[in-house]
Amino acid sequence: MLIVGGGITGLLIALKLYKDHQLTVIDIGPDPRFNVHTFGATYSGLDARHISFTETDPWTSTDRIETIMTSSVDKGWLCIPKKDLTDFEKKWILKFQETARNELIHKFNTSEVIELNKRGILEWEKLGKEYDFLKPISYESVMPIICRNREDLIGEYDFESSLDKRSRIYKNMILPNSLKPLLQRQEELGNLGYFTVYGKAYSIKTICNKLIDFLKSEGVSFLWNKSYSNIPTDTIVWASGVSLEASNLLEKFSILLGGVIGCWIAMDNPGITQACKIYAGEPVNYINITPEGSNLYLSGGYGFVGVRPYGEAVKMAQPIIEYMTEEVKKWFPGSKIKNKAFCVRPSTPTGVPVLIKHKLNKIPIIFAVGHCAGGFTQAPYTAERVKSLMEET
After folding, report:
1. What's the half-sphere exposure (Cβ side, CA atoms, 13 Å) at 186?
2. At the topology level of CATH, where does 2-392 sit?
């Protein structure tokens, strides 16, 4: 079997299948254990990810019908100048807007993705018991989400709280000691309160490097710095990210996969000891905060970059990282920023990932693509579903 894509999804698929299949994992990027890898979302961000029931959900709400076509300079999601949009990118945006106009479809898609997240979380917890190197950073399971005004607090809580009985709302900022540094500028920010959801934090790059070591020790082959080609194989599993070549192939199977930018900031940790989230406005949205010793990793920001290569996408997304940097400085005014990074997350326009079986040149091919920000959360369950499809094949 050939697995195209050596990110978290591809690696966990390999983990589920290596005992029963001869596997080769191929990836266009370099070996991430020894090189900087900027060809996919897994490796081009920083070493932290969260899992939660709504770690990702479809963005196709009615208020984003125009946001997707508003320039990132004006706090929209469109990083590409309108005059430069390709036909493929226009199709992606049109499908996004069509879904956003149909509230029933959006709600159905949201429920579907949340269910994938829930199942992914259960699988992560099973894996953590089976493999020591797949454990989370900490075992806390309550993740605070902090809002700065009553409308955001009540609105976001109403949505999240229906998902799990562990959700609870706090209408004042009497934070636990683990989050006290967030109160540095409470009066200026107008902090009002927070609510909690079930969630955990992981070190994603560390996990992937250990996964590669383990899989190699079990006989799995890896081909780095190599694009997909007609390598002799009985089955293909396509878990690759965004590229012009990939989009051309996927479009033949009616799969529209475009890139959505994600922004990362590493800074001095002022004393945060618990993973949490901050709710911000467009185009930043939730800022995920992950403490690890003296470092604080923050991720957030959304912008459509189509099928542009990483270097071009990063240049286009500069306004979004600037907005996120401004927001972060309000919360952590005394912390020095150490590093900034980007990742390009592959996403379907509906926000619902694709898992489907076809044939490519008479060879069975399974597409497991388009997870966007939920790729990490959903990866182990995606791997389970691929295994089931393999058994059917």
Report:
1. 12
2. D-Amino Acid Oxidase; Chain A, domain 2 (3.30.9)
